[in-house]
Amino acid sequence: MPKPESFPIENIFVPTKQKKTIKPESVAEIAESILDIGQQAPISVRLDGDRLVLVEGLHRLEACKALGETTILGVLVTAELVQPKPPLAERPEVEAERLKMARLKQLRLEKEAAEASTSSLNRVSATEAPRTRPAKGVRDIPKASLGRAAKSTPKTLSDWITQQKSSGGRY
Q: Which of 1-5, 41-45, 97-101, 102-106 has the highest mean pLDDT?
C-alpha cells in the first residue's frame, strides 16, 4: 500500500457520477469526527493526465472542504490497482437480500391463497341450503313402469283407486 501524502483539495476532480451520491448527513458526521480526532483514513486518487481524480473517499473530501481545509491526506493509486466494485446486482449481500425477499413474497402469496380458499369455502357452505332426505319409503321422483306411459301421481287415495280401476290393476 502506498504511503499517504497531502494533496491540495482544489486539484482533486470528482466525477459527476460520484457527486450524485453525496449524503449531507454523512459529510456532517465525518466533519465532526475529523474535528475531534483528525482524518484517520486517507482518500484514494489517481492521475489522469495532469489532474487528480477521486477514486474513493468522497464524503471525507467534502467534510474537509466544509471545514475549510486546503489539503487532504490521500494515497495515489494507479488505474490498474483501482478495483472496480461489482455492479450492485452482482454483490453477494444484494443477492442474499433478493433471495430473502423472493422467499417472503412466495410465503405471502401462499398465505393469501390459503386465506382466499378458506373464505370461499366458508361462503359456499353458508349459502348452501342443508340437504334433507325424504321420509323412508317415499320417493322424490316416481319411476315410470316399463312398457307403460308414465302416469301422473294421484294426490288423494280416491284418485289412486280411480286410477287403478281404469288401468285394470288391483287395489
A: 41-45
